[in-house]
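User: Small ask, check this?
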Amino acid sequence: MHITENRDALVNVEDANSASKALIIESKHTYKLTSEWKQPKLNGNPHNVKVRIIAAGLNTIDYKSVDYNFNLPQYPWTLGREASGIVIEAGAEASKTLSVGDRVWVSTYYKYIDGGVFQEYIVVPSHTVIKIPSTITYDKAATLGVTALTASMTLHHYFNISIDANTPDSLLVWGASTVTAQFIIQLAVRSGMNVYGVASETNLKLVESLGAIPISRSNKTYDEIVDEVNAVSNNSIKYVADLIGIESSNAALRLLKRGGVIAPLASMTLGKDAKIPDGVDVKIIEMKRFILDSSYKWHADYLNKLIQANELVFPAIEILNGFESIQKGLDRLKQGNMNGKKLVVLF
């Protein structure tokens, strides 16, 4: 299901000075749905942009921040890091590249309370506001600000894989049916990499359709999976992107030799007991770089170029409706077994 109605008309009828709806974190571990949230303002910053949120992507980091009490500088606070919407106001500098009424997608930073996308309006730096290609709808655009950007930054910044080079190195993606993994596989294949994807038996066809050699994890121990990856890849794995957790990341370390690189994308750590082989590099992916350093905007521009040319396949999207559905959606993510689907909330 995709958003087909003309929501651009909202820009002409919304009262940009009234209170607005939001799902906030009121106190430790406590969500609150409110219609009295104060709208953020540009506050005279010429580089800021105000966006009316139309669709927001849900990510595991959203519920983990609440459950484990991190990335919440104070209470109340806002959540949500990727969305799409309409520009309703732009500062003097921002208006050189963005106009009122532009359809845009955004990637935001947890330290900016004005940027949490689980509210009707956000105010964010202009370099994090990207025009939506004409070929896609708001729901698809709402999947780009975390998952697709993470994929591009992992491969083309942290792994230093050129977008143009024919790179025959081998990449293992563990958790290959997850949404971020789906984007990683496609971008890696475009760069000429040999890609292997570990996933459940149910999702092997999806992994293969994206260009990876599928390897089932179902009913296997970590040792058995590692042995199979080595056999299928002829012991050639140089890069690992793990989207499952500490145990799978530590298992994947056994695939790497000197010069190898691993990115533990799910856990952001290998744990204190990890046995890292000599010469293997561990990359912790910091998405905040996209927000704090405008030079990273090229990742968004590259994704847009692929999208405009219909060269990027989006994950299956399930639409949820309204602010009241956000917490239910986050509970769904917590349960796992999304089978490659992306949850997007339409406001």
